[in-house]
Specification:
Layout (H helix, E strand, L loop, with lengths): L4 E10 L5 E9 L5 E8 L11 H10 L4 E6 L18 H13 L4 E10 L1 H10 L6 E7 L5 H6 L8 H14 L12 H12 L5 H5 L5 H4 L12 E6 L7 H8 L4 E6 L16 H13 L12 E5 L5 E5 L10 E5 L5 E2 L6 E5 L27 H4 L3 E4 L7 E5 L2 E8 L5 E9 L5 E10 L11 E6 L3 E5 L4 E7 L14 E13 L27 E13 L4 E15 L2 E14 L2 E17 L2 E12 L2 E10 L2 E11 L6
Parallel strand pairs: 3-4, 3-5, 5-6, 6-7, 7-8, 8-9
Antiparallel strand pairs: 1-2, 2-4, 9-10, 11-12, 11-22, 13-22, 14-21, 15-20, 16-19, 16-22, 17-18, 17-21, 23-24, 24-25, 25-26, 26-27, 27-28, 28-29
């Protein structure tokens, strides 16, 4: 880091129960005291959790007089202990103890902030909810206080490929990877042995706890308990598009909300409409950790990207905007949207292959042309659709759309999926937002009429003249949601069925635009990233009416001058229209740590069906078998 900064590697911080968490500290050289920021997550501070944008952001802040701390979650990386599953209840308490330890160090002036993208953003929220006295501000990016509601069980449905083929299996590998900081005393080997003995695959949580039970209740942080200023950042195309505005609304402390058209990306480096997130993050911490009178707390607290063919940025004074003018439209028997016609019904035959063409929500498709995953025309052709007449004036939707539908299902279980789309004059259907509900959980009985409410994800979208608004109904959203196992028919009764649109006229006097600082994409390049690839292949077997997704992503990182880390993840999902009970998801994660005097390879394979999930992990050291274990989860099936 040169003379301007000082690095302290792998300091061990005792928690209140005696378990030691490992932290790295980067701070300005000398004996001065500085405000500090903390990134606390599961992705290995000495690997991808600290050698990517995290390292770049921390260097940026250290150059501006901050100390920066990166910490390994309990039971991962170089930290001791065993984590009691994903998003464990004690993570906020561990974060609390880390904040107070940082504040007491001779290089810290007692003012601490937390930030992070995804899981480290979640730990910022859960830590803030415990109210550490020295935590003065947080910046959670693409995060949530309630993972079950926001991601794991959308509308009560069963989790799909993000938990069972992508992130869940990848975390099975990360939790058992060796520490990438090898100390001379051999502590790293003892810690790794502890992890191999005690860590179990996190994806078991999404198989064994599908409902909102005590397991999940203990993992919800209360955003209303957050007392420090919070700058919440997310994207409309991210996993947490519904969660972030909801958390923002519940926080009573000074707060700021930034919502862009992004997936799981840092605002400055986003593929669409990049925003100066790093500049605002710096201003936020300067204001609340240093007391710099930069006026950020007096600016409009909400900055929204209004998506569509003519997108724009909008500054708002609250979420949702006060000028919201909700508008009800009915799903009419002639396939249109408009005033209720009071009669008639339509039927939709459950097609479990629907969903493959609306994968705009997958956060790992950030490397793909952002226009491609949004078109859901092929899914619409298999769904029950209702179209508004072509618009003759712009229609802005800003807020949370809601559906109230009267339906009957011939068999249960069965899901109900509601999507809004903007249909261009050429017929291209662009996904706006989605909502899901498990009909059985909503009180449905086979063959009986029931009225169900479906809350769609929050959005900000402007439809232009000539476009049509479409409501698409289906019983599947594969592979995002696990398909229900039995064939069924859904009957929709038109009279009482309607969508409430968050119609929002432009503000009087024109659109206020946020005042951005300078974009800093170069500041987010760590220098340790050695490249990677991504592929996304969707096929349909027309004879069997079967769809399959085959995706892959690779990352290459420099750990130190002599060590490289390679992570390759391949994952897939398949289902046939006639046999939803045979749906299957699989993945293979390969981790290679190459050193001049040795190498470690970890391969994690997983498979998920409607009946069980299985994980097998094999580890080789210097090409020789070192460790292996397998687990199986399912109804009445104990882990092995």
């Amino acid at each position: 880091m040169g003379e301007a900064s000082l690095t302290m590697r792998n300091l061990l911080v005792p928690m209140r129960d005696g378990v030691e968490l490992a932290v790295d500290v980067l701070r300005p050289a000398g004996t001065g005291r500085h405000p500090a920021i903390l990134n606390f997550g599961p992705y290995h501070k000495d690997g991808r959790g600290g050698r990517t944008a995290v390292a770049a952001v921390h260097r940026h802040f250290v150059a501006r007089g901050y100390a920066a701390v990166t910490a390994d979650l309990r039971g991962l990386g170089n930290s001791g202990g065993v984590p009691p599953g994903a998003f464990a209840p004690g993570e906020g308490q561990d974060g609390h103890d880390l904040v107070e330890w940082i504040a007491a160090q001779p290089w810290c002036d007692g003012n601490v902030g937390m930030w992070g993208v995804s899981y480290p953003g979640i730990t910022a929220l859960s830590t803030a909810a415990t109210r550490p006295p020295h935590l003065k501000a947080i910046v959670p990016i693409h995060a949530t206080s309630d993972l079950h509601r926001g991601v794991a069980a959308l509308g009560g449905t069963r989790s799909g490929f993000w938990m069972r083929a992508d992130w869940g299996p990848r975390m099975a590998a990360y939790t058992l990877m060796p520490p990438q900081f090898e100390d001379g005393e051999g502590r790293w080997a003892r810690i790794w042995a502890e992890h191999l003995e005690g860590n179990a695959p996190w994806l078991s949580a999404f198989v064994e706890h599908p409902d909102f039970d005590d397991f999940w209740r203990a993992r919800v942080a209360d955003p209303g308990a957050i007392a420090c200023p919070s700058f919440n950042v997310c994207g409309w195309r991210d996993l947490y598009a519904a969660c972030t505005p909801r958390d923002f609304a519940a926080i009573g402390a000074p707060k700021k909300l930034l919502m862009g058209p992004w997936k799981h990306e840092f605002p400055d480096t986003a593929k669409q409409a990049p925003a100066a997130g790093l500049a605002d993050m710096e201003r936020w911490f300067d204001r609340w950790l240093r007391g710099v009178p930069n006026g950020i707390e007096s600016e409009p607290p909400v900055a929204l990207h209004v998506q569509g063919r003519a997108p724009l940025w909008r500054a708002e004074t609250q979420w949702p905007p006060a000028r919201l003018d909700p508008r009800d439209v009915h799903l009419r028997s002639d396939g249109t949207l408009g005033a209720g016609d009071g009669a008639g019904s339509s039927e939709h035959r459950y097609d479990p292959t629907i969903g493959m063409h609306s994968l705009a929500w997958d956060p790992w498709t950030t490397g793909i042309d952002p226009g491609l995953p949004h078109d859901q025309s092929a899914d619409d052709a298999r769904a029950l659709c209702f179209d508004m007449a072509p618009l003759d004036a712009p229609l802005e939707l800003i807020g949370v759309p809601a559906a109230e539908l009267e339906v009957a299902a011939s068999a249960l279980p069965l899901n109900l999926v509601v999507k809004l789309a903007a249909v261009a004059p050429n017929g291209r259907s662009i996904l706006i937002t989605s909502g899901w509900v498990d009909l059985a959980a909503a009180g449905a009985k086979p063959g009986e009429r029931v009225r169900v409410a479906v809350a769609l994800r929050a959005t900000a979208y402007r439809l232009m003249p000539g476009e049509r608004l479409r409501v698409a109904l289906a019983c599947a959203d594969f592979p995002r949601v696990w398909p229900t196992p039995v064939p069924a028919t859904l009957k929709l009764f038109h009279g009482p069925s309607r969508i409430t649109l968050p119609s929002c006229p432009p503000p009087a006097g024109g659109a206020a635009v946020p005042a951005w600082g300078e974009l800093q994409p170069g500041a987010l390049v760590s220098g340790d990233e050695l490249g990677g690839t991504q592929s996304w292949d969707l096929t349909r077997d027309l004879t069997a009416d079967r769809v399959r997704l085959a995706a892959a992503r690779s990352e290459r990182l420099r750990i130190d001058a002599a060590t490289e880390l390679a992570i390759d993840h391949a994952y897939g999902a398949a289902v046939a229209a006639a046999r939803p009970d045979l749906a299957r998801m699989d993945s293979t994660t390969t981790v290679r740590i190459a050193r001049p005097v040795g190498s470690t390879t970890l391969v994690a394979r997983s498979v998920a069906t409607g009946h069980h999930s299985a994980v097998a992990i094999e580890i080789a050291v210097d090409g020789q078998p070192f460790w292996s274990r397998s687990w199986r989860y399912g109804a009445g099936m104990p882990a092995s």
